[in-house]
Specification:
Order of helices and strands: HHHEEHEEHEEHHEHEEE
Number of strands: 10
Radius of gyration: 23 Å
Largest sheet: 6 strands, antiparallel
Structural class: alpha+beta
Strand order of the largest sheet: 4-5-6-9-8-7
């Protein structure tokens, strides 16, 4: 009978010992199984994480992957379906499946949830206020899962829509990953910041966790956003993760919503 288990990379559960009746055997433990397509999904994700297929590149066809892992095309297709739903890969009709990249417009708006009350969503203009290296405060270190006092890159920027300052962002990035990131590089780069992180620092953001609360602008914020002190704002704290659920960015944004709203889709 032909095995339906991918070779070498996926371990099958151990068979029960022939000495099952021996006194003292553990009777409460049981092996944990995952569906085969989930195992294939994990192996494909490992290849994405290792850089075997880089952002924007075409990955092997379902037939090729099925042959590689010694499973059916249907199993591979189900794994690819889940990776596509998680925005790790992108299917293109008649062309194949590609590794997702932040340089695609649809990826940019995955992480920018502020939309205009009227008109078509568009990416804001960036103005870098400050970039410096510092030692991670305890709370920043905790959220980035690094040691307190480790090097982090701190970035403050203002994002404007049609010339109107709308978002004040404070970002903290692990210094060990983002060596060489400077204000000059950020200012000269014209694409989305996550695209720069992906291209030059090999860090692809795949998901984020956010907390949102209402606040009022203080004097510093009001000056940077050209608004009155006390103006209502949305405070959005986001931790972004790369492969392996590793946190690689802490972002605290203040959003002016006089002409915009925060949009989310639940499914």
């Amino acid at each position: 009978m032909t095995s339906n288990t991918p070779n070498a990379n996926i371990s099958s559960a151990n068979s029960a010992s022939s000495g099952a009746g021996v006194a003292g055997a553990v009777v409460n433990s049981s092996p944990t199984f995952s569906p085969l397509y989930q195992q294939i999904k994990s192996l494909i994700t490992q290849s994405l994480q290792s850089g075997e297929w880089k952002p924007g590149e075409l990955i092997p066809s379902e037939m090729e992957l099925a042959a590689r892992f010694k499973v059916s095309q249907g199993t591979v297709r189900k794994a690819i379906d889940e990776l596509s739903a998680e925005n790790l890969v992108v299917r293109r009709q008649g062309k194949g499946t590609f590794v997702a990249t932040h340089h695609e417009a649809r990826s940019q708006f995955r992480f920018l949830r502020l939309a205009p009350d009227e008109g078509v969503p568009h990416y804001p203009e960036n103005k870098i206020i400050e970039v410096r290296r510092l030692r991670a405060p305890a709370e920043v270190a905790r959220l980035l899962e690094i040691k307190s006092g480790d090097s982090v890159v701190f970035i403050r920027r203002v994002q404007s829509f049609s010339g109107v300052p709308t978002i004040l962002d404070d970002l903290w990035l692990p210094g060990a990953i983002f060596k060489g990131l400077t204000a000059e590089r950020l200012n000269e780069y014209k694409g989305p910041m996550y695209g720069l992180f992906e291209t030059e620092f090999g860090t692809h953001m795949i998901r984020a966790s956010e907390q949102i609360r209402a606040v009022c602008a203080d004097d510093v914020v009001s000056e940077l956003l050209s608004i009155a002190s006390g103006t209502p704002l949305l405070n959005v704290e986001r931790v972004s993760f790369t492969y392996g659920d590793k946190p690689v960015e802490l972002r605290r944004g203040l959003y002016l919503t006089s002409h915009h709203h925060y949009r989310n889709e639940l499914s």
